[in-house]
Amino acid sequence: MKHLSVDFPPRISLSGPSPLIPLERLSAVLGLDIFIKREDLGAIGGGGNKLRKLECLVAEANARGCDTLITFGALQSNHARMVAAVAARQGLNCELVLSRKVPRQGLHYEQGGNLALDRIFGASLHVLSANEDAIAFAGMRAGKLAAEGHEAYIIPFGGSDALGAIAYSDCVRELLEQARNIGIDFDHLYHGSGSGGTQAGLVLGAELYASNVLVQGISVLHQEAPLTAIVEEILKKARDRLGVNAPDAVSPILVDSAFVGPGYGIPDARTLEAIEVMARTEGVILDPVYTGKAFAGLLDHVRRGRVKKGEKIVFLHTGGVPGLFAYADAFGPAV
Question: Residue 334: is its pLDDT beyond 70?
Fold first, then answer.
């Protein structure tokens, strides 16, 4: 692996390495070697990709002497749930600004899933309408807390900024070490791309550790052009913060937005099929907001020949399983 003399920012330790596991039955069905990296199996909070980002973001909050974490997202935000869990682990206060941006109602969605865990972790919840400005509200709360003698650290949507991307680049280092240990060289890395920070971190990691793996984002939120621009901007700021230049041959940002479907947080038939394929083939649970759509994209690419025979794929399970229970009615009646 390429040796780097890069001054990485401080990070706290929240979890160990996530497993890299071959999907043997699925590989036999699809005729390709497919592995899964289980970022969902983190040590706390129900797991997920946000844990790596929070290792650096919360380290910065601690260095600034902050006693409160504030972040924002949708009502069933996985990111918000993980911030609440990490705040509890670190002995910090936590305020979550949650917006009703997904047109979904009912007991499961408005009381269960991540929301139940947010309350269990002790977070203070502020629920806004779809049209209210969550960023402005978070800033207002930080100001009010400051007047009361507290110091708040505002974590961006999805933890997706330069620091979060730098933190997530470590996933690639870990993946490459695991792959080398079993004699695998991956051609494609598939993941769900929402706020752009995870994809920027994966691309940054591929650059830093000289990997030729193609990082394929399956959008769950934006159309291709705006998401590409978001990833490029975060990636540029991450490089600047580390003081590294873009490589001479810059790989294009790969985004497929065909699986956003009706919108963010709204699963369609392809998403539900993908969840069932993974569950009934490998016993692995995906979620209807991120990983279900990402895996639907992977299945489509394989079926249409966009991934060639003999190429090796790793699917990044970014978590979100607790949110599945907010969508229990999407899978039909239980009895």
Answer: no
pLDDT digits (tens, 9 = 90+) for 198-209: 999 999 999 999
Residue 116 and residue 41 share a domain: no
Amino acid at 23: L
Q: How many domains does the chain have?
A: 2
Residues 218 and 246 in one domain: yes
Picking from 128, 159, 190, the residue at the C-terminal end of a domain is: 159
State the pLDDT confidence band at 4, using cuts at 50, 70 and 90: low
Are residue 145 and residue 179 in the same domain, yes or no? Answer: no
As given in the structure block, the two tokens for residue 324 are 């599945």
Among residues 104, 134, 159, the one where a domain terminates is 159
Secondary structure E strands in the chain: 20-22, 33-38, 68-74, 93-99, 124-128, 152-154, 188-193, 214-219, 254-256, 312-317
Angstrom distance (rounded) from CA 115 to CA 74: 10
**Which uninterrupted H or E stretch holds 54?**
helix 50-63
State the catalytic residue, choosing from 18, 77, 99, 193.
77
The pTM of this model reads 0.97
Please, which pLDDT band fits residue 251 given cuts at 50, 70 and 90?
confident
pLDDT at residue 112 is higher than 70: yes
Instruction: Give ∠ CA 226-231-237 in degrees, rounded to 5.
Output: 125
Annotation says 18 is catalytic: no
Task: Please say whether the beta carbons of 172 and 215 come within 8 A.
Answer: no
* pLDDT tens readout for residues 269-313: 999 999 999 999 999 999 999 999 999 999 999 999 999 999 999
User: Which helix H or strand E contains 75, and what residues bound it?
Assistant: none
Helix 50-63 / helix 78-90 crossing angle, nearest 10 deg: 50
